[in-house]
Amino acid sequence: LKPGGANIPVTEKNKKEYIERMVKWRIERGVVQQTESLVRGFYEVVDARLVSVFDARELELVIAGTAENDLSDWRNNTEYRGGYHDNHIVIRWFWAAVERFNNEQRLRLLQFVTGTSSIPYEGFASLRGSNGPRRFCV
């Protein structure tokens, strides 16, 4: 995990680093071949020099695109469950907070909830989940 790591005891001070390195090692060793194939294929299509100037977040936005999101479209295409409804106090607080977000914060919220920061061309009515069309849900 780390040069000379076998001789370094895990302590409260270095515990976080140890856990991060262990998780990274366990995740990466299981998908090394797939990741290498994906990267090779990507660079066959896109010149590496063109994407090297972006960090991971910027590259995702370049590839997936972004848009100013239409808050009224988002609200009109949101589904409520568990006793919530558009006029529920918690939902009013939620939308009041989202209204104060800038566009990037809204896209990050969308990515956290749906797994993507991309808004379909057709708007929020066309959001898709892993098994087909899926509305934003609270």
TrEMBL record:
Write the Enzyme Commission number(s) for this entry.
2.3.2.26
Q: Which Pfam families match?
A: HECT (PF00632)
Q: Name one GO biological process term.
A: ubiquitin-dependent protein catabolic process
Quote the Gene3D superfamilies the UniProt record gives: Hect, E3 ligase catalytic domain, Hect, E3 ligase catalytic domains
Quote the gene name from the UniProt entry. Hecw2
Top-level taxonomy: Eukaryota, Metazoa, Chordata, Craniata, Vertebrata
| Gene Ontology terms, MF aspect | ligase activity; ubiquitin protein ligase activity
Q: In which pathway does it act?
A: Protein modification; protein ubiquitination
Designated name of the protein: HECT-type E3 ubiquitin transferase
What are the record keywords, sorted? Ligase, Transferase, Ubl conjugation pathway
Q: What class of enzyme is it?
A: transferase
Q: Which reaction does it catalyse?
A: S-ubiquitinyl-[E2 ubiquitin-conjugating enzyme]-L-cysteine + [acceptor protein]-L-lysine = [E2 ubiquitin-conjugating enzyme]-L-cysteine + N(6)-ubiquitinyl-[acceptor protein]-L-lysine
- Give me the Gene Ontology terms describing cellular component: cytoplasm
Boundaries of every HECT domain copy: 1-138
